[in-house]
């Protein structure tokens, strides 16, 4: 949600050097746990309640449960210490009279653009290829709601398992190589995966859902550390919040609606696949061109203003 960028920054700034990818990937994994609770909860409610009860009042149960969890997070957050990086910036502001947002927009425009592009590619892949799959199966493949929710639950579990593995891999070989592999996988496997989803078979849909979930989860995992590394300490959170959240709204939250509209306009049930491929080309490729791989640099170096404008670091 809205605090996701803050979680990425917090985990990246508290991680030890050499393991930022693994540590920050837990932000993505926890987001996927939220998706698992939502889809799994929907499956459970559909099994326990009649359709009439589910429509009348059952759908409210999960909303109330989510509200309770959100309320629980408030005291937990107040008990957490701030990061050392944040405290240093707060106690020694470079320009006390200037807003961090204005500072980052003036000093880190490239980083803000990278945050937007990386988030756009990842959000479209995640919302289309994980979040929207149960709805797609039910409305397009005529699959029963309980079955589609069950398959969505399995896909969410797969995403959670692979997420920290991709984060760790990016610590070892660098962020860029993992991003490139994931982009290629999304380009190559998205259409075949949707062919499996639209076939109507539960086993085929399970395989197709896994093909979609793994690279989408991997992109989110690597982005969780790669994007904070594009910014120096001053304005890191503000710059990420602007680029990341705008992209999430445009390419994440709106993607299922765009996919449904494309199916209606084109008459093709594979339109969402072409849309996902188009987004990864339009946003993912430029992101990889502008992106600076800083996986193997200490956070103390990244935080320094004199790192701005440094050439990209090529992974060994």
Automatic annotation (TrEMBL):
<dbReference type="GO" id="GO:0015293">
    <property type="term" value="F:symporter activity"/>
</dbReference>
<keyword id="KW-0813">Transport</keyword>
<dbReference type="InterPro" id="IPR051084">
    <property type="entry name" value="H+-coupled_symporters"/>
</dbReference>
<feature type="transmembrane region" description="Helical">
    <location>
        <begin position="57"/>
        <end position="76"/>
    </location>
</feature>
<dbReference type="InterPro" id="IPR011701">
    <property type="entry name" value="MFS"/>
</dbReference>
<keyword id="KW-0812">Transmembrane</keyword>
<feature type="transmembrane region" description="Helical">
    <location>
        <begin position="21"/>
        <end position="45"/>
    </location>
</feature>
<feature type="transmembrane region" description="Helical">
    <location>
        <begin position="148"/>
        <end position="166"/>
    </location>
</feature>
<feature type="transmembrane region" description="Helical">
    <location>
        <begin position="178"/>
        <end position="197"/>
    </location>
</feature>
<keyword id="KW-1133">Transmembrane helix</keyword>
<protein>
    <submittedName>
        <fullName>MFS transporter</fullName>
    </submittedName>
</protein>
<keyword id="KW-1003">Cell membrane</keyword>
<keyword id="KW-0472">Membrane</keyword>
<dbReference type="InterPro" id="IPR036259">
    <property type="entry name" value="MFS_trans_sf"/>
</dbReference>
<dbReference type="InterPro" id="IPR020846">
    <property type="entry name" value="MFS_dom"/>
</dbReference>
<feature type="transmembrane region" description="Helical">
    <location>
        <begin position="239"/>
        <end position="263"/>
    </location>
</feature>
<dbReference type="Pfam" id="PF07690">
    <property type="entry name" value="MFS_1"/>
</dbReference>
<feature type="domain" description="Major facilitator superfamily (MFS) profile">
    <location>
        <begin position="1"/>
        <end position="296"/>
    </location>
</feature>
<feature type="transmembrane region" description="Helical">
    <location>
        <begin position="269"/>
        <end position="291"/>
    </location>
</feature>
<feature type="transmembrane region" description="Helical">
    <location>
        <begin position="111"/>
        <end position="128"/>
    </location>
</feature>
<dbReference type="GO" id="GO:0005886">
    <property type="term" value="C:plasma membrane"/>
</dbReference>
<keyword id="KW-0769">Symport</keyword>
<feature type="transmembrane region" description="Helical">
    <location>
        <begin position="203"/>
        <end position="227"/>
    </location>
</feature>
């Amino acid at each position: 949600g809205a605090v996701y960028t803050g979680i990425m920054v917090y985990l990246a700034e508290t991680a030890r050097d050499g393991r930022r990818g693994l540590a920050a990937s837990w932000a993505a994994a926890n987001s996927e746990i939220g998706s698992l609770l939502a889809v799994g909860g929907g499956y459970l409610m559909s099994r326990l309640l009649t359709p009439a009860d589910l429509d009348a009042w059952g759908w409210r149960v999960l909303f109330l449960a989510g509200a309770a969890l959100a309320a629980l997070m408030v005291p937990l957050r107040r008990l957490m210490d701030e990061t050392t990086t944040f405290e240093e910036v707060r106690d020694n502001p470079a320009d006390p009279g200037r807003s961090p947002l204005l500072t980052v927009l003036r000093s880190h425009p490239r980083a803000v653009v990278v945050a937007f592009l990386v988030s756009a590619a990842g959000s479209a892949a995640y919302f289309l290829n994980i979040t929207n799959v149960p709805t797609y199966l039910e409305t397009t493949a005529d699959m029963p709601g309980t079955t589609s929710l069950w398959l969505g639950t399995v896909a969410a579990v797969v995403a959670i398992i692979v997420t920290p593995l991709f984060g760790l891999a990016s610590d070892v070989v660098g962020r860029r190589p993992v991003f490139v592999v994931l982009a290629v996988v999304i380009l190559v496997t998205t259409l075949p995966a949707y062919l499996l989803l639209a076939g109507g078979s539960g086993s085929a849909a399970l395989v197709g859902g896994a093909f979609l979930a793994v690279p989408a989860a991997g992109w989110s995992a690597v982005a969780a550390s790669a994007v904070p590394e594009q910014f120096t300490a001053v304005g890191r959170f503000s710059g990420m919040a602007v680029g990341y959240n705008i992209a999430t709204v445009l390419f994440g939250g709106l993607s299922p609606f765009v996919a449904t509209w494309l199916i209606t306009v084109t008459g093709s049930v594979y339109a969402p696949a072409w849309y996902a491929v188009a987004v990864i080309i339009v946003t993912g490729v430029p992101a990889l061109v502008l992106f600076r791989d800083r996986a193997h640099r200490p956070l103390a170096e990244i935080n320094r203003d004199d790192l701005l404008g440094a050439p990209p670091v090529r992974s060994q």
